[in-house]
């Protein structure tokens, strides 16, 4: 039995180690063959999607690589510092390194498949890479409780709830992004949409704000050259460079980097859509025929929501706002510089509800991210224990430092599930 478990675990770890740009095309190809889309369409769609994801992640790495140093420079220049270390994307290493990885993955697929067949869910979990949000929450619960099964239960509950939330938001994503039959069950992303619904409802009833059309389309019409996305990116980059005390040369380089990124991001999402849509439609059509016309959503990576110009503009505007809020809010003990990388994915989930309105998008996310700041501070002990149990960040932990992030530590749904385990007394991992 141990040998079988090890073989399954090794197979899962090998596959997830391929990353999204290889793993997603393989999954799409397999699904295309299983659901009779046709092998040529399956190959072309999978490879095209992989190319789009490769380009998109390269662009995202570039924007984070360009913005993190200038945000750090601004924080240093204005003496902004907190005690907890923000590890953010390192959580992807945490989530694939704990003992419950295969059980969460296989358990979620089985339960989701049953729920879809029973008409209790519409979103079919096909995006295996996005399981990492549930896996990371499972690792945190494992660190808290010292019990692998508690971690597995946490990961599965988190991901199944994500699929239900996807059912609620899928239509909005499909219409706004012109991507039929998709669903996006990624945890932090989907929760941003749910938060946007009541906040936008309130904003739409406030005089002034409700009629203030600040969309990229409006800005292009009224501002001419200065309304173009590329020129806005240039200006934003220059402003950040000046605020960070950059040299003239580095300021100009940052300006051009942001301008290029804002244009390329949209193009990459277009390539993703070119590969994804025919495959997703074929899979959904096959399932509808055999499930008596039922509506099925095919789960895809939250990166597909990044194509609208307002996503990256609102994200960059939010970067300094969130640093200032983290510095000023009492009880917040982490400056989220690496964690700023999650903002574009949340913005992609919010703009379908704000219809691309930059002011509303910024307000929604500023409100939504305040709890992230407090939850990431409160979850730092559990976060740190999980890293200690798998042997990462030993030097920092040994010196007494605490670790956290927005994507896992600040996650509202994960915080609620973990808090339930605490109330039930599952804190053996912390006690040790």
Provide tags for this entry.
3-stranded parallel β-sheet, globular, mainly alpha, single chain, 432 residues, 18 helices
Question: What can you tell me about this protein's structure?
Answer:
The protein is mainly alpha-helical. It has helices at 2-17, 20-34, 39-77, 91-95, 101-117, 132-145, 148-177, 187-203, 216-223, 229-243, 248-290, 309-328, 343-354, 358-378, 380-390, 394-398, 412-423, 428-431, and strands at 85-86, 123-124, 182-183, 297-299, 403-404. The chain has a three-stranded parallel β-sheet with strand order 2-4-3. A two-stranded parallel sheet has the order 1-5. α12 crosses α13.
Question: What's the helix and strand layout?
Answer:
Elements (H helix, E strand, L loop, with lengths): L1 H16 L2 H15 L4 H39 L7 E2 L4 H5 L5 H17 L5 E2 L7 H14 L2 H30 L4 E2 L3 H17 L12 H8 L5 H15 L4 H43 L6 E3 L9 H20 L14 H12 L3 H21 L1 H11 L3 H5 L4 E2 L7 H12 L4 H4 L1
Parallel strand pairs: 1-5, 2-4, 3-4
Helix pairs in contact: 2-3, 3-11, 5-7, 6-7, 6-15, 6-17, 7-8, 7-13, 8-13, 8-14, 10-11, 10-12, 12-13, 12-14, 13-14
Please provide the count of β strands.
5
Report the span from N to C terminus: 29 Å
Overall radius of gyration: 21 Å
Beta-strand percent range: under 5%
Q: Tell me the domain tally.
A: 1
Placed side by side, the strands forming the largest sheet appear as 2-4-3
- Category by helix and strand content: mainly alpha
Task: Give the number of helices.
Answer: 18
Low-confidence stretches: none
Shape: globular
- Tell me, rounded to a whole number, the average pLDDT: 83
Query: How much helix, percentage-wise, in residues?
Result: over 70%
**What is the assembly state of the chains in this entry?**
single chain
The secondary-structure element order is HHHEHHEHHEHHHHEHHHHHEHH
Question: For the report, how would you describe the main beta sheet?
Answer: 3 strands, parallel
């Amino acid at each position: 039995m141990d040998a079988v478990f090890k073989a399954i675990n090794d197979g899962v770890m090998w596959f997830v180690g391929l990353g999204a740009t290889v793993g997603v095309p393989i999954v799409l190809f397999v699904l295309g063959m299983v659901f009779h889309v046709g092998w040529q369409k399956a190959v072309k769609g999978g490879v095209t999607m992989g190319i789009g994801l490769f380009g998109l992640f390269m662009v995202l790495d570039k924007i984070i690589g360009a913005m993190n140093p200038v945000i750090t420079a601004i924080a240093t220049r204005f003496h902004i510092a907190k005690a907890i270390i923000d590890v953010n994307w390192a959580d992807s290493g945490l989530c694939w390194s704990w003992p419950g990885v295969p059980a969460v993955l296989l358990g979620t697929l089985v339960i989701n498949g049953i729920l879809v067949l029973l008409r209790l869910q519409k979103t079919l979990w096909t995006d295996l890479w996005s399981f990492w949000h549930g896996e990371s929450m499972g690792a945190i619960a494992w660190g808290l409780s010292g019990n692998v099964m508690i971690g597995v239960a946490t990961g599965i509950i988190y991901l199944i709830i994500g699929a239900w939330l996807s059912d609620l938001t899928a239509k909005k994503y499909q219409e706004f992004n012109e991507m039929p039959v998709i669903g996006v069950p990624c945890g932090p992303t989907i929760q941003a949409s749910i938060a946007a619904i009541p906040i936008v409802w309130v904003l739409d009833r406030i005089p002034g704000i409700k009629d203030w059309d600040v969309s990229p389309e409006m800005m292009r019409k009224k501002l001419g050259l200065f309304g173009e996305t590329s020129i806005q990116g240039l200006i934003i980059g220059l402003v950040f460079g000046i605020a960070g005390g950059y040299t003239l040369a580095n300021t100009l380089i940052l300006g051009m980097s942001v301008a290029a990124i804002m244009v390329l991001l949209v193009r990459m999402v277009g390539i993703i859509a070119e590969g994804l849509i025919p495959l997703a439609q074929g899979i959904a059509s096959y399932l509808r025929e055999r499930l008596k016309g039922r509506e099925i959503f095919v789960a895809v990576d939250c990166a597909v929501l990044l194509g609208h110009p307002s996503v990256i503009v609102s994200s960059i505007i939010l970067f300094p706002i969130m640093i200032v809020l983290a510095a000023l809010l009492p009880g917040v003990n982490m400056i989220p510089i690496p964690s700023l990388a999650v903002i574009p994915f949340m913005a992609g989930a919010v703009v379908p509800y704000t219809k691309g309105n930059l002011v509303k998008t910024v307000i929604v996310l500023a409100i939504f991210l305040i709890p992230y700041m407090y939850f990431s501070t409160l979850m730092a002990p559990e976060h740190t224990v999980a890293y200690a149990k798998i042997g990462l960040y030993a030097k920092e932990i040994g010196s007494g430092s605490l670790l956290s992030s927005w994507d896992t530590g600040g996650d509202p749904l994960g915080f609620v599930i973990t808090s339930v385990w605490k109330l039930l007394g599952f804190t053996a991992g912390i006690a040790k």
